[in-house]
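Re: How this chain folds, sequence and tokenised backbone to follow

Filed under: protein folding, tokenised backbone structure, sequence and structure records.

Contents: The amino acid chain and a row of whole-number tokens, matched residue for residue.

Body of memo: The sequence and its backbone structure tokens, given next.
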Amino acid sequence: MKKSFFWSGILMVVFLAAALVATQATAAGKGMGMKPKASEMKAVKSGGVYVMSGKLEGVYPQWNTAVINCPEGKEMFTVAGPLAPKAELRKDGKPTQLQDFKEGESVTVKWKAVPEGHLILMLSAK
């Protein structure tokens, strides 16, 4: 069991690092006058908050985090990070807990970029 916990921790660090690099690269591109990627164009923006749909790739209740892959045209945008302290979690319209979500489910995620990466504000599955 200790090996499994160790590798789960390593996997989570890799996901969070990838999310942070993607966020930093996007911010750097905007500063240089580059055009936004398709994922930025299609995400619904409201005061720095984005809403996207995708597939739940990882659920980590022990770290209060989730990983969601959101298709955007020919590209894939990954939202990976912790849940906000008051994150809204829903399944079939009813309040739920993170451990009730399963990998592979189609979900809608509301998130915002923070200096550390992504902060998940809402996760919902039908």
